[in-house]
Amino acid sequence: MLTSHPLIAREGWPYLAGSLLVAIAATWILGKWSLPFWLWTLFVLQFFRDPARVPPLDVDAVISPADGRIVAVEKVQDPYLEREALKISVFMNVFNVHSNRSPVDGEIKGRWYNQGSFVNADLDKASTENERNALWIASERGDVTCVQIAGLIARRILCYVRTGDTLVRGQRYGFIRFGSRVDVYLPTTAKPEVSIGDRVKAAKNILARW
Length: 210
Fold this sequence. Notes:
Layout: H1 13-30, H2 35-47, E1 61-63, E2 68-78, E3 83-92, E4 99-101, E5 106-114, H3 126-129, E6 132-139, E7 142-150, E8 157-159, E9 166-167, E10 172-176, E11 180-186, E12 191-192, E13 199-200, E14 206-209
Antiparallel strand pairs: 1-14, 2-3, 2-13, 3-11, 4-10, 5-6, 5-9, 6-7, 7-11, 8-10, 12-14
Helix pairs in contact: 1-2
């Protein structure tokens, strides 16, 4: 399925419009010294890019919910469903695409939001200490917990789905502004297909197989 939506995420239009207006005003007032304002506008443009993605056809695949670098592949206790689980974490820096997409097909059975700190999302303690939003997705192959986690400079987690909604793999469901992390908890029978340090893209690369 092609996850079609505008090339620039709708969450970014206010920031892009504001940056552009400031850059134009700076050019009129400062002339050549306005370059930093234009560089900031370019940064905002690249941060809020949101390319369409085509998920793999492999029915056994659990796909990445985010662009970024794998920072954890381990068996832990899922704090939301209270079970032993395979946890795979994707860290997004400010140069990654920040749209979040569903890793599996399924129905949302629960959603939890926790306020928290804003420590570096690259650290393990970010999973339990930072602001976060968790979804319990019940798929035909097993339960998946997908957690959006705010990072060091992230200040807004956006999630557009609620309990009872259904998602398909690769479907866009949220966005995190300015640096973040996504944790995915899977049944321990799932086989990881990534290692720490690997780079992945949302709705495109495979995290694990059932």
